[in-house]
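Consider the following assembly input.
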Amino acid sequence: MKMAFPRAIVYLTLSFAFNTVDASTVQRSRSLQIKGSDTMVNLGQAWAEAFNKKFPNANVAVTGGGSGTGIAALVNGTCDIAESSRAVVEKEAKQAAAQGFVFHEDIVALDGIVVVVHPSNPIRALTMDQLRELFLGNITTWKTFGGPDWPVVLLSREVNSGTHIFFKEHVLRRGKSKGPEEFAPGALMMPSSYAIAEEVALNENAVGYYGLGYISRRQKVVAVAKDDRSPAVEPNLTTVRSNAYPISRPLYLYTRGTPQGPVKEFIDFAFSPQGQQIVRDTEFVPIR
Amino acid sequence: MRLSPRRIKEFIIERLIFASGIASILFVALIFVFLLREGIAVLRTTGLLSFLGGKFWYPISDPARLGILPLILGSLVVTLGAILIAVPLGISAAFYIAEIAPIRLRNILKSFVEILAAIPSVVLGFLGIKILVPFLKNFLGLPTGLTALAGSIMLAFMAMPTIISISEDAINAVPREYKEGALALGATHWQTLHRVVLHGALPGIIAAVMLGIGRVFGETMAVMMVTGNAAVIPHGLLQPVRTLTATIAAEMGEAAKGSPHYSALFAIGIVLFVISFLINLTADLFLNKSRGRTR
């Protein structure tokens, strides 16, 4: 008799615990896992926050790790949507086929990186090769490009920034992800786009780069030409969308086959006016 | 019953106080063990010599180059500059407050020193970007104002409250009789101050300076905002530098757990820990000496 009472409590507690576990699995089955590009992780999180607010039942979780990590997770079935700042490669498509599905691809936004100088700097346009030489540290005065004899001060983002990596791979390494090229050791590593904008606005020697969203009148945007023979293109929503501006890339969402259910709801949300406004707010170029 | 409620209460409180006292030792030990566990791998991937003496910091290259010599020197240059500014100013201010200022002004000054200590470093950094950096660039004709000097000036502001308050305590702790004796012997006020009071307070003042150095060395946010963070070996105060603390703060978020970069950042933590420990130890030695002399 003395033992029965506590045992009853234990059973009771256990059954309660069991109930709560049950409830949480129900919820978990409705949750969405999104994984991938570090560049897009803020965008994904902003979407998720708004989506969770709109659909209180939904439970969207967003993590980074890199585009490749996200695509691998999608293949392995550990996430529902992969965020990627590059298209899937053939190897990944084969892995997907082995799992019995084809990638469904959506371009939800574009990423345009602008190069900015001080408004008093007469430089109007640079080619990709000139930008490369500049940020490799091979050019020490603006005179080289026909400007005044001012020393060049290079501004870069910190290594934790996706923009830093994209600019390095796209401009310094001419589109290759691996290579010996690095930003000049003397390049200043700024903790934020704000810090770059501020220094460029106040320093006539400075040159920096950041997302389209940071353009203001206090800095001058440099037009960029693909090579010597191509015309220099000003970055704006139109030229980034038409791919005429050379330092831009599409941002993808991948799913296992045609999206259905909550996955489809989320992707529709990303394309909705509200979702595209979030794209703009997180400094990317909306696609619609 | 042998154990009265009073005794039990006494016992529990004693133990709790003992645990609180021991806790700080335990925390320091645990932090060090943790840093060591995460950071020791750098010895395997990079090696001690090329870690401490390497001239290039390219943590996300393939292979990563993890030399922290520019970062160590960057931290030292910024600290040295801050001390050159804060020590003369701070000690002079302490003398003024403790020995010369009239009582009412003294109280006003002391509360302003406390307010200076309370300004968050990110706010100072913000003012640095907006005001100090453009000013330095134009005034000194530099390519950029984001320099070690900008960091030093910001940090001097942060070290001053520490230096002033502790120096002032040390000056007040010099026995009155010394000063009265000097004045009675016909010494002027200035002679008394720098021959007698300064001598008496010197160990305490040195301790104040060391604690100020510790404060400066470990500061992160303001430094990261105004020094430019370029990992080059500095040749002076007028060029950009990258400090140890700014490197950890800027890169920790992105380093993949278990990667050489990750362990290198923890190893930088060890380097910071060891240097701060040495600074505090020196300060302690001088503080004890000052107490021994004046009491």
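The CA atoms of residues 157 and 195 of chain A lie 9 Å apart. Ask yourself how this observation constrains the way the partners meet.
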